[in-house]
Predict the 3D structure of the following.
Amino acid sequence: MDSTHLHLISNHFPLVGMAIGTLTLIYAMFAKTTPAIKNVALMIIVLSALTAIPAYFSGEGAEDTVENIAGINERYIEKHEDSGKLFAISIFVIGAFALLLLIYDRLKRKENKFLGYVFLLGCIIVCAFAINAGNTGGEIRHNEIRSGYSPSASADSNAENNATKADDGDDD
């Protein structure tokens, strides 16, 4: 398995995990559940941060592979790299805070509601970064999700690319 394959496999876990962890945290905070549900949410967020490690560190190798594929625009790769870095840093930070909150809960057993709301706001912001990182990653290979996409322009572009490939003088 090369870094491109690893990146494609691993990049979904932190995005989906962060969303599930945040939704579970919202439920735990506003449905007045037992502290165990909040701890489950925090554990999901910690695990999501851990799953971001292979996704983040395999990105550079994936870039090396796809930047040489015909039709790939370097601008989309750079945009994804920037948003991926922001998401990675933010999920690592929020994951560390989630771990600290789990430890704090074990030591004190006294809930700080203000800290909980600040943490929830941080989780929502990280989810926004996750959406952006996922979307910019998808734009690299999926023209149909790019802003300004036109199916007819895409068809013309594909026909042009196919004509160029057929006319390359290579008899393979």
User: Anything to note?
Assistant: Residues 3-166 form one domain. Residues 74-108 form the longest helix (35 residues). Residues 12 and 98 are 20 Å apart (CA to CA).
